[in-house]
Amino acid sequence: MTAQLKVGKRILHLRNDLGLSQEKLALKADIDRTYLTGVENGKRNISIKNIEKICKALEISLKDFFNDNLFDLN
Amino acid sequence: MTAQLKVGKRILHLRNDLGLSQEKLALKADIDRTYLTGVENGKRNISIKNIEKICKALEISLKDFFNDNLFDLN
DNA sequence: TTTAATTGTGACTTAAAGTCCGTTGACTTA
DNA sequence: TAAGTCAACGGACTTTAAGTCACAATTAAA
């Protein structure tokens, strides 16, 4: 699994926890809804700036965002 | 402090722990030497793919890379 | 079973990422 | 003082992520 897909899965999971639609989250993060779709599906090689934007909208630190088994070695 | 700068500081710190020069690490990570300089100095908005490349070269997981006070909530 | 909300896709432009060439200055050691 | 390593920087490129759009497809709910 690529890193992009891991990031996408993580965002999807956290977004569902908050009960937000892609559109609501995209608005909150000030990014395009269809871009967020691409990120969640691992189609976009997202940058640290946009990861940070999304983390802020998800109300989570970068530390906690990556603190998941997904991001363990292999 | 921007997320880019935090990433740069983290890479620098881990690189020094391993006693590697920028050039050695860049070679190991298969990225450009001058690009790594920019990343370490917080001038580059690095993507998740390249963060992963550098983490592999630093022999650390993404989870551990971001498991640092730098990446706590403000 | 139509309507409405939500998510996914392809294609595109443009702004920036990333590479490759080199130079410079600081520091170290022979 | 010459030679080497290292980090930072710059110009000129090529490649790719960011960002947007119209529309299709899926799901929920009425």
From TrEMBL, chains A, B:
HTH cro/C1-type domain ranges (all copies): 11-65
Residues passing through the membrane, by range: none
SMART domains per UniProt: HTH_XRE (SM00530)
The keyword Amino-acid biosynthesis is annotated on this UniProt entry: no
Keywords: DNA-binding, Transcription, Transcription regulation
PROSITE patterns membership: HTH_CROC1
Protein name, as recorded: Helix-turn-helix domain-containing protein
Originating species: Gramella jeungdoensis
Lineage summary: Bacteria, Pseudomonadati, Bacteroidota, Flavobacteriia, Flavobacteriales
